[in-house]
Amino acid sequence: MKRQLSGAAVALAVVAAGVLASACDITPPAATANGDTISTATFNTQMQTLESTTAGGCLLQLENAQVAAVSGQGTGGSGTYSMTFANAVLNNMVGAVLAEQYATSKGITIAPSELTTARSDFESTLDGEINAAVQQAEEQGTVSFCQDATGASITGKSLLADLPESIGAAQVRNQAVDEKLLAQGADLSDAAVAAYYHANLDQFTTACVSVIATSSQAKAEQLEAQINAGASFASVAKANSLDTQTAADGGALGCNYTQAQVEQALSVQSVTVGQPIAPVEDASSGSWIIYEVTSQTVAPLSAASTVARRELLQSTSNVNRVSKEIVAFARTSNVSVDPQYGTWEGLSTVPPTAPPSQFLLGAVSGQAPLVSRTTSGS
What we know:
Helix content is 47%, strand content 14%. By secondary structure, it is of the alpha+beta class.
């Protein structure tokens, strides 16, 4: 459940990364919400991590793809941040504080064991979101922030491990708070879990998939016809597939897919074991590929119940319920931000308005410096 209460505000100003501190630090907090503060140092660490590290960039892409799509660096270079980026990060941090305050007001507390569970759940959630982000990037011919230098997808576990400890711990705590809030009012009874399981068996059915890669649609349709006429998928793959990694093994791609994932990826309503699926073009390579599900295994309810409960927790209606409750709490909260970032209005930070250019020094406004005029005596 994303914590940002609203979209990022747009401005052209630049926010400095650091604040000079004397022996007596009088640096104001970046924001205050109902008496709880977000220090400028914590805010700066968050911005630096999200803007300049692989783990931070991936996390930002998953939380706010629109902000991640543009550089967060300000016009002052390294160590400065655009106001759009700063406001988006600050809004998200304020949202996290308000969510925990709301949870506290409902009598919710977080035990150490719940933090352990939340970490595991969060890593699993990140894995799914990262895979989706990388797949989307590959389809668009781009590189995701969630890929390392070799192009491989990072994992949820490595993402958390690579974040500064304070930020990683805050993310896990956010997850724990979310889970406790979502659980209040959700039907997680055995009957509800069983009903969800039986209504969504494709999510709990593991499919083994094989592929044949060809150079054209015509070639793919020719090979599909051979399979439909009785030739085995494996023999056709070995003799014809351009995918050298799978051809030797009869086209076997693996069994790490659910039936739901296969149906969604190939845009089909259902699949039949042992029946080739009409060829589809791979956007990244231009190859035409024939797929076939060679076997399926349905997980028993006892093994699927944990996932089913998580899906019930994360249902759209349940997430919307909690989001509305937090927004209502936020509207009655006392929130303020450091004036250099703007003012808090409603549910987000509104950036400061720059003064008209005629009131700026030439070096700041981009105009030629003003020349002072003197009057000579006669």
